[in-house]
């Protein structure tokens, strides 16, 4: 409850965090360790090694380490245990991914294909249009709330410093989904008053895996390389803005970058800087 009420952790993040800790607890229990006080750094490192040996993705192992460190830090801060066995827990180094930037033709093929004229089709079209029009992270789209959307201005308000405009195509697709399709997606759900925007077929919040499958499905239908990832679509948004003349630092701010992360290595050309908010409305 601390994570939900105090830390305000999104539901999907909370589920992942809980799953990580349950896996770790199962590993320890099989080795006779049933109390947090008895967990050692050697035991935790053995758990991480087992994940690696069973071909867990590096990103998943890094997330596991983060969850474990947060859990034991909380126990120490609240006096549940005396020492933190996860203080020196080492995470594997993240692997650098080759980002695949979609061409203009591929984007048009993806977004111009025929979508089913039902609630599911309207949801899928809204998701694809919004992802490309805003460059949202997968987690941000999954956790998107009605309060983040300003349909009258055609923008998303992610926080005080981050306003993301989107064009008429995305506005039209999102409006069609919110008008009646969203309510239909929720008809069998117990959470009719939820603020979440997107759901799966059962009326539950979408998962990252479900979103990835959706993207993969429509990429294949559009004749695009099936290995396209959620990050590829996000980075395509940023690169296309910059290659059409938008200022790279402003685009990165719109995408929510807080460090030195740069789109520069994905660019193929340079043009005069212009207002990115104009280019964000190119799909009109």
Description:
- This protein is mainly alpha-helical and 284 residues long.
- It has twelve helices and three strands; from the N terminus they run αααααααβββααααα.
- It has helices at residues 2-5, 11-30, 41-53, 58-77, 104-112, 119-134, 138-142, 168-185, 208-221, 230-243, 248-254, 276-279, and strands at residues 149-150, 155-159, 162-165.
- Strands 1-2-3 form a three-stranded antiparallel β-sheet, with no helix packed on it.
- It is globular, with a radius of gyration of 21 Å.
- It starts with a helix and ends in a 5-residue tail after the last helix.
* Global shape: globular
Low-pLDDT runs of 5+ residues are 1-8, 269-276
Mean pLDDT: 83
**In angstroms, what separates the terminal alpha carbons?**
44 Å
Strand ordering within the main sheet: 1-2-3
Category from helices, strands and their pairing: mainly alpha
Largest sheet features: 3 strands, antiparallel
Number of strands: 3
Order of helices and strands: HHHHHHHEEEHHHHH
* Beta content: under 5%
Helix content: 40-55%
Q: How many helical elements?
A: 12
C-alpha Rg, in Å?
21 Å
